[in-house]
Amino acid sequence: MTAPMLAAVGGIPSPIVTALTFLVILVVTWLLLTRSVLGRGFSVPLRTMVRPVETAEYPEKPRPVAPRFHGRHQLNRYADGLEKCIGCELCAWACPADAIYVQGDDNTSEFRYSPGERYAEDYQINYNRCILCGLCIEACPTRALTMTHDYEFSAATRQELIWTKDDLIAPVPPGAYDTPHTDREVRDRGWNYYGGLAVTPPTLKGGTYPAAAAAPSARAGEVIPHGELPDPGDEPPDPATVGGPTRPDPGGTAR
Length: 255
Hints:
single chain; 3-stranded antiparallel sheet; Alpha-Beta Plaits
């Protein structure tokens, strides 16, 4: 039954009947698009049809990525040039795709690459396998491994997608120099690399930082390296050696 026929039967003006019919169609359509599974599926392309088109002029004008975007990895340094990576291999153990290989080595008094006992002699990330999940940077205890916003690192061969330490290491900060350093140079700086600003005197870092209530500044004397260092030609004692002149053997005689 058409609108003129309804107007003739009920005595309702034709424009009002047309408006009511249009309103009923809108309500039914809205219920279909919001209350049914099929309608919600159709609503996605319908919303997209009325939105303005966003065209990115890539690669001339690439769009900015999200602040927490996971891109290419980077091995960070301290402000004096020392590497933050201590060769613990936790990133390799946390990687679900087995894409990271780390070979650690010991620092020496004349060749120091990191503040810790060890450093990463060899560091590789296979981007043929990497899924950029970020679990490796969550496992890093020193924030040595982070992820940048760089996503343009495609290659023509698989071998070129295996990035080594030379490709991943961050540039040397201004005013610093590349590794290796010596223990004497590190001690003279008086930095505490792992205690944070709470135990590092601001005068030794050349900046002004808020006072920390959790740890007094006097604690800095306990964590900054001190004492005499061996000369370059001397062989440092091995602290892991078991026994000594005062340690008796099982037989009861002193060694």
